[in-house]
Amino acid sequence: MRVLFVCLGNICRSPTAEGVLRHKLREAGLADHVEVASAGTGDWHVGKAPDKRSQAAARLRGYDLSAQRAQQVTRADFAAYDLILAMDNSNLRNLKALQPAKGKAELDLFLRRYESEIDEVPDPYYDGDQGFEQVLDLIERATDRLVIELKGRL
Ligand code: 4NP
Description:
Elements: E1 2-7, H1 13-27, E2 35-40, H2 52-60, H3 77-80, E3 83-86, H4 89-98, E4 106-109, H5 110-113, H6 129-153
Parallel strand pairs: 1-2, 1-3, 3-4
Helix pairs in contact: 1-6, 2-6
This protein binds 4-nitrophenyl phosphate (4NP).
């Protein structure tokens, strides 16, 4: 199984989701069975490490994002991944516009798929620290449910 998280810049939300899922897969003994990556619909931050604020907030909860580097999503990703999870509706619209007619990837809105009380992970880029905490809260909860789904699909 290959899972790709997508946000706008690939420096805040989707790298956080990548780090959280990797961690939870290791805890569940599934790290060798699922490949995880993240990408942005935009290209402004390609090659950069995750935002320092995302890294700091994640580190306090035990997730290390430091080795990640931003990349932009491509049409080829729809053939390479099984599941592509968008952080907000704008990301989902941009992905649908890029999606080839044929491609194995299932495309979905991350929080809606896992029945969160809100559908979108809010963009924290222009927010204070509280925004980064909320991103982690939402992502941790949905990722617990994603791990259950992945267990059932392996
Ligand atoms: P992300 O956050 O999509 O969660 O990585 C953002 C990062 C950068 C920008 C916007 C959102 N930006 O406009 O540069």
